[in-house]
Amino acid sequence: MSFADLPAELAAIEERGLKRHRRVLASPQGAHVVVDGRNVIAFCSNDYLGLAADPRLAAAASAGAARYGVGAGASHLILGHGAAHHALEEALARYVDLPRALLFSTGYMANMGVVTALIRRGDAVFADRLNHASLNDAALLSRADFKRYAHGDMAALERLLATSCARRKLVVSDAVFSMDGDLAPLPQMLALCERHDAWLLLDDAHGFGVLGASGGGVLQHFEVRSERIVYMATLGKAAGVFGAFVAAHGDVIEMLVQRARTYIYTTATPPMLAHALLTSLAIMASEGHRRAHLSKLIARLKQGVAGLPWSLLPSDTAIQPLVIGASAEALRVSSALEARGVLVPAIRPPTVPAGTARLRISLAAAHSEGDIEQLLRALHDVAVES
Questions:
Q1: What is the pLDDT of residue 3?
Q2: What confidence tens digit (pLDDT) does each residue in 35-75 have?
Q3: Boundary (domain end) residue, out of 262, 286, 310
Q4: Is residue 11 included in any domain, yes or no?
Q5: 113 contacts 102 by C-beta, under 8 angstroms
Q6: Are residues 38 and 164 located together in one domain of the fold?
Q7: Which of 2, 99, 136, 340 is most exposed, with minimal Cβ within 10 Å?
């Protein structure tokens, strides 16, 4: 392949309705934003608790910068592991009620680090087919035997585990599936891991801060604990800042410190962000009204889409996918909504299976009931025009 081939390949992507475009956000993240010069109501952010632009976090970040500076200046294992990082790791472990936590720069890097540090050639990884790309890429990079099962099919997972002769087994799964919004059947998965001597890596990027009585995530939601669980969550969604962490048994975390290349060979995140996240955790724990309001908005949306020609996938989380079907039609509906001042992204293959292009409606505690009503009016108006 040469550079001369690229224009034709890009044109083919556009012809299939799969070309992506970046938007320019000119305001703080929130329910009402300025995008590409227009004021819109946004239903496309992962800022589930409305904390990304909270002035208390901005003040904490400013205080952290004054105290620690901006850049970490080194990797964690050289001289970049600051007091703010250390305090945040201890706070995160307490928050999710696991023995120890370790910070990573991103969720992608965390998943890469965990899988490649714990699993290698001769081992096996078992993955739900709708897992996030980072879990799939990590499994491939590990060189382990990579087995995938149909979404949520615990019988299929048990067959794969029962017939595996791998030295070490690792089941990896989204906790909340990012494009469908449903939850992994955690109790059943853990029972299978116990029965077949496997570890369980959970990517709770979209559940941390949202699920559970105090926002402790999917483990708190299902009230499960096990030394077999390796728990990963991100800090740029409900927590409103940036980064990720892994929490697990102390020996697992120590192995990541020693072997996780995405932890060892990268500069630590700015300590000012770790300092801000301590404030974020306190807000998440104490302001349960944010989660309660979000639950009310989810219920209203589910009630209000009745009668539309498109189907809402079964989800009780902030991710509410409205399946349109063809990519071109999903783009048309998204564009028609935007013309009405409502921004909802069209998600197309390969992110979702062919024929299931959808509007991924992301709700947040920052939305008002009036925002939901405006979204519903716009959806019904567009449906009439279809």
A1: 85
A2: 999 999 999 999 999 999 999 999 999 999 999 999 999 99
A3: 286
A4: no
A5: no
A6: no
A7: 2
| Residues 59 and 182 both lie in one domain | yes
* Three-state secondary structure of the chain: CCHHHHHHHHHHHHHCCCCCCCCCECCCCCCEEEECCEEEEECCCCCCCCCCCCHHHHHHHHHHHHHHCCCCCCEHHHHHCCHHHHHHHHHHHHHHCCCEEEEECCHHHHHHHHHHHHCCCCCEEEEECCCCHHHHHHHHHHCCEEEEECCCCHHHHHHHHHCCCCCCEEEEEECECCCCCCECCHHHHHHHHHHCCEEEEEECCCCCCCCCCCCCCHHHHHCCCCCCEEEEEECCCCCCCCCEEEEECHHHHHHHHHHCHHHHCCECCCHHHHHHHHHHHHHHHHCCHHHHHHHHHHHHHHHHCCCCCCEECCCCCCEEEEEEECHHHHHHHHHHHHHCCEECCEECCCCCCCCCEEEEEECCCCCCHHHHHHHHHHHHHHHHHC
Nearest to 191, CA basis, from 148, 224, 153: 224
Tell me the average pLDDT across 17-21.
84
- Whether 232 and 164 share a structural domain: yes
Q: What is the CATH number of the domain that holds 264?
A: 3.40.640.10
Query: What CATH number corresponds to the domain at position 361?
Result: 3.90.1150.10
**Banded pLDDT at 20 (limits 50, 70, 90):** confident
When mean pLDDT is compared across 10-14, 227-231, 314-318, the lowest value belongs to 10-14
Task: Assess whether 33 and 100 both reside in one domain.
Answer: no
- Of the three residues 266, 286, 306, the one that is the final residue of a domain is 286
Confidence (pLDDT) at 122: 96
**Are residues 360 and 321 located together in one domain of the fold?**
yes
Total of domains in the chain: 2
Looking at the fold, whether 179 and 85 belong to one and the same domain comes out as yes
pTM score, whole prediction: 0.95
pLDDT band for position 1 (cuts 50, 70, 90): low
322-331 pLDDT, tens digit per residue, is 999 999 999 9
